[in-house]
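From the pipeline queue, job 12 of 40. The input is one protein chain; the requested action is below.

Action: predict structure.
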Amino acid sequence: MRIIVVRHGHAEAKKGWRGPDGDRPLVARGRRQADRLGKVIGGGKPTRVISSPALRCVQTAQPFAEKHNLPVELSGHLSRDAGQAAVELCRQLLSFETDESTVVLCTHREVIVELLPQLSKEFARKLGHRPPGAKGGAWILRFRVGKLEKVDYHPPAA
């Protein structure tokens, strides 16, 4: 199984944004990153695309999901303050998805810096790159028979 953890693309700056944080959209650079996400992730057909409900995450995942005729599933387990819930989501995916599955998760820096070190520790596998990685980048975690075999970081294409 592959779990691909994507950090959302560049969005409107927090400082100048007057609305709710979850409504901050991608800027032009972030939209380009979203359009090129397939190049970052590489080959293979995803079986699911799951995103934080935040608009910037949904907008990052949407072009990739549409290209593969998949819906973007929303999960609070990937929201900015989800913390340990993202780890639990990954455990559930490992329990219920097949070894051939590829699940794309789009989330936030705050989740990635907690999720990846926890999985690294739990499965005794070094990350090779320091989380969270750049906006629009992706972490590809390859599991086989419940073991984390390989972790690759791919920087954004834009």
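Job complete. The mean pLDDT is 94.
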